[in-house]
Write a structure and sequence with these properties.
Blueprint: H1 3-10, H2 17-20, H3 40-64, H4 88-98, H5 126-138, H6 142-169, H7 171-182, H8 196-211, H9 215-226, H10 232-248, H11 250-256, H12 259-267, H13 270-283, H14 288-297, E1 300-301, H15 305-315, H16 326-348, H17 353-367, E2 369-370, H18 376-379, H19 388-394, H20 399-423
Antiparallel strand pairs: 1-2
Helix pairs in contact: 3-6, 3-7, 3-20, 4-5, 5-6, 6-7, 6-8, 7-19, 8-9, 8-10, 9-10, 9-12, 9-13, 10-12, 10-17, 16-17
């Protein structure tokens, strides 16, 4: 081949057409970072399923119309979405907008079930603090900022659930677990001004960090969870137990060292302890938080006496117990009956000790506490390890069958996971 022919072969014909015509080529397509791509199916399934459930909830609210006649603080509002900022949401917005106003506990003159005046210090600071920060940065009102924080946190939580379950049972099971969390009983608060989504995000990623032996991150996340809600004690205890086991075993101590686990044990409880001590000092008694919970909200640990009382009454069709709401209570009874089966299935999968300890401690806390029994589904929403066995079993199904299941569950969740909690009970 001559030089001229070689030049022709490697010349204009080899130059991209856009360059020969004087035009720039198209910019590179936006794409997810490689590390984020495995999470995409789980997040899409979670998001679509939640949107369907929320849409059904909105339709039911508009059909009933009862919310228009209720107090905006107690399940009412001008629009259906206002419901998402009522009840506990109202308290979080008060903290976000006005801060705390602690002081000595104020006894109520009439006594009865509630013996002291309610105070916003019963609601932990991390979630309302984020609401305030997001509102100031974005210009959204506090209610819109609260919902935004919950929605974003719910996707972080779904990603954390995927990360934990996929590490134990495969990516397909992790994706299904994220979808199951979207339709779990009580899931209606995930996109409301409630702290569940943020707490589950912290709990799931804390457990993942412990499983991966990332002790510094686990300690910091557990610390943050302690500023989120008092039930973080279950998570903090699980982290401490896993760290202690790691230090106690010679092989794991050699492999992972001592400094990381010890750091996690020390850092994990500091957030919870700091807030409880601050409340105690501000209100004149180190046990003020627990006194407020018991006297202001009638919530206290009673070793399951209240739960047993509800189970007996519901079984014989009576409602002679505290905080009786027939429909939410009946669904909660069914969930409690299913718990031993779900726990047994989870244990058969031999999950890491941090998941076992976190699950059992969380269940003990919920069933051993006097509180609104109809909200058991919401209180158990953070116990995501129970999804391990169902997700692993369902991962054997083909996608057409899974599509039918999640479509049906998403539609039904608009009633049992949303409407029942917000309109037929007190969330």
């Amino acid at each position: 081949m001559s030089t001229a022919s070689r030049d022709t072969a490697t010349g204009p014909a080899s130059v991209p057409a856009d360059e020969r015509s004087g035009r720039q080529g198209p910019s590179r397509r936006l794409s997810l970072p490689p590390g984020a791509r495995p999470y995409l199916p789980a997040l899409v399934l979670y998001g679509v399923t939640k949107l369907v459930g929320l849409g059904v909830f909105a339709c039911l609210l508009e059909y009933a119309g009862d919310y228009r006649h209720k107090d905006p603080r107690f399940g009412g509002g001008a629009h259906w979405w206002d419901i998402l900022s009522t009840w506990d949401g109202w308290w979080y917005l008060q903290v976000a907008g006005n801060g705390y106003h602690p002081g000595p506990l104020k006894p109520l003159a009439h006594g009865g079930v509630f013996t002291v005046e309610q105070n916003s210090v019963a609601f932990f600071p991390l979630y309302p603090g984020l609401i305030r920060g997001v509102s100031e940065v974005t210009g959204l009102g506090l209610s819109g900022a609260g919902i935004l924080v919950s929605v974003v946190a719910s996707f972080v939580a779904a990603a954390g659930i995927y990360a934990v379950i996929s590490a134990l049972a495969g990516a397909r099971a992790g994706t299904i677990a994220a979808g199951l969390w979207a339709v779990a009983p009580g899931a209606g608060v995930e996109w409301a001004v409630y702290s569940e989504s943020l707490y589950v995000a912290l709990a799931a990623w804390t457990c993942y960090c412990v499983i991966r032996r990332r002790w510094v991150a686990a300690g910091l996340l557990a610390f943050a969870a302690g500023l989120e809600r008092p039930t973080s004690a279950a998570l903090i205890g699980a982290v401490g137990l896993a760290a202690l086991v790691t230090v106690a075993r010679r092989d794991s101590r050699r492999e992972h060292g001592v400094a990381g686990p010890v750091y996690a044990m020390i850092a994990a409880p500091l957030g919870l302890l700091t807030y409880l001590v601050w409340v105690g000092l501000s209100m004149g008694s180190l046990t003020a938080y627990f006194t407020l919970e018991r006297g202001g909200w009638a919530h206290h640990f009673d070793w399951g006496v209240y739960t047993l009382d509800v189970l007996r009454n519901v079984a014989v069709g009576r409602n002679g117990y505290l905080f009786a709401f027939s429909t939410p209570d009946l669904l909660a009874v069914q969930l409690v009956i299913a718990l031993p089966f779900l726990v047994a299935l989870m244990l058969r999968k031999r999950p890491p000790s941090v998941l076992v300890a976190y699950t059992l401690a969380s269940i003990l806390t919920v069933l051993g506490t006097q509180q609104m029994f109809g909200n058991t589904s919401r209180y158990l929403l953070p116990v995501f390890p129970l999804l391990l066995a169902p997700a692993a079993a369902m991962s054997r199904l083909r996608w057409p069958g899974l599509a039918v299941f999640f479509t049906t569950a998403a539609v039904a969740s608009g009633w049992y996971a949303h409407y029942v909690i917000f309109e037929l009970g007190i969330p």
